[in-house]
Amino acid sequence: MAGTQPTRKSTIYDVAKASGASTATVSMVLNGTWARYRIKEETANRILEAAQKLGYAVNMKARGLRLSRSGLAGMVLPHYRNRFFAGLAQTFEDQARVRELCPIVVGTQRDPAVEVNVTETLLSQRVELLFIAGVRNPTPLNELCAAAGVPCINLDLPGDGAPSVLSDHRKGSQTITDVLLDKLLQRGHSPDDLVLLGGVADEYATEMRIAGFKDAFAARGLTPGKAAIDSCGYNAAAANRALASRFDNSGRLPLGLLMNSITAFEGMVQFTATLPPDALKTAVVGCFDWDPFAAYLPFDITMLRQDVQTLIAEAFRLTENFDASDRSRILVPTGFGKMFEEAEQTKEFDR
User: Fold this and answer.
1) What domains, with CATH codes, occur in the chain?
2) What three-state secondary structure class fits 260?
3) pLDDT tens figures, 285-305
4) Structure pTM?
5) Contact between residue 67 and residue 49 where contact means Cβ atoms under 8 Å apart
6) Which residues contact 175 (CB under 8 A, 6 or more apart)?
């Protein structure tokens, strides 16, 4: 009886014959370089299907050859200049890789034209999802994603064209304002000395922080002073100028300062560096952002920390069961920076 002949393994030539493509084209598809050589996706899919039917050994995961998938996850954000946006980008990258996605993060400098161009480019590369962070008007970007059938989530600032995941700016602002008011009163200062400085009028985050600031005063039966709110902008130069103007008018800085962002806080540090060392000796300062190096500054500082881990986790959760009609807004609580928590624990121990 003749022996059984071993089953012959399929070759690249078999795949070429079955798919109707040249061996060169088959080779580029199977080694994952087909997009680089402008081979059509339809052709690549046909070759991959033929290879699978023939049992040709293709390491689909290692080579990124997933039918109808790119494996790309996109994020647009204004910039990387502060710890909050840098933290969002890093956490997004980490959590995308856990999901076996390749992250692409692009800074757009809050330029609407750049935001649209970048979104169109990412969609042309077939990103499987897009996170839109810190964009003041994300609606045009949401519409582009909807037209392409790509799930998108608004982060940090909300929009009307997709679900949004946001820090609870109002509650956080009320909480830190309470802390600063207590500190002012303990030093014998008036609540009228507390100023909220920075941000952009009519922008969601700023308006929520202003509302929380007022809530803290209202809970005590108080109202902020007439010049207590100054939405001078987020950048350091604007905050520097605003403080210089106040100093020129009154001969001193406010005894309580709540800075609306870490970049505005940088402007305050720049300005106070030009003053005598004791200019803020009895002042209290807060910031709606966190940076550990602030602990080394020569004045009392309290900082809120936005929870980037939860913001990104909630955004991915929404994409995993994406509903194109969903317009919900998920609020993520803020917390105090570690240096403030340690200081409070020390005070409790000393008591």
Assistant:
1) 12-63 (1.10.260), 72-162 (3.40.50.2300), 169-306+338-350 (3.40.50.2300)
2) coil
3) 999 998 888 888 888 999 999
4) 0.77
5) yes
6) 212, 216, 304, 334
